[in-house]
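Reading group handout, session on sequence-to-structure problems. Before we discuss, look at one worked example. The prompt was deliberately terse, the way you'd type it at a terminal:

> structure Thymidylate kinase

The input record follows.
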Amino acid sequence: MFITFEGPEGGGKSTQIRMLSAVLESAGHSLVLTREPGGTTTGNKIRQIVLEDVSLQIEPLTEFLLYSASRSQLVREVIRPALQEGHVVLCDRYFDSSLAYQGYGRGLDLRFLQDVTWEATGGLRPHLTFLMDLPPKVGLERAAARGQFDRLEQADLQFHERVREGFLNLAAAEPERFYVVDATRTPEEIHTEILQIVQSTLIFKF
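And the output record:
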């Protein structure tokens, strides 16, 4: 089973992945936790370029292709082998982030992004995606409280508004895969809802 967590900055994706993984592991499920960009040696080096080195001026298309390169490596090196071995994979971001950030946010053509994504992932799609939704202003304030902004977090509020709209549009187009979660609530409240969704949607024993 392949589960992804998506959403704007400060939505609490990493926190919810940790909380869900603790429950699933205690119930005896074998898990693989990973993230984008990153998750492999190659992907981690790409992450340094696209997120951590804020001094670089990266064109939107270059940015998308770098994310896609990291994603291709992650799918082939980590995600697909884990799924074939029967593990549950929890991933902090996947291709929906590129559609939202580089498509809706940067203005790149969505059809082109989808075509490249299909090739990069070999058509691998998540079984379930949680969209951690909250107003961008709130999310950026949370991100600021963590410390220095990365390259994407440094973008203006209008950019992040477009990204949020993109995520919501993607969720509306695939209601069978997406669950939109109100991320303005406490981590415990969100965790309870996610557990209920996982339990009702998937054949998991807790």
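Points for discussion. First: The mean pLDDT is 92. Second: The longest helix spans residues 60-84.
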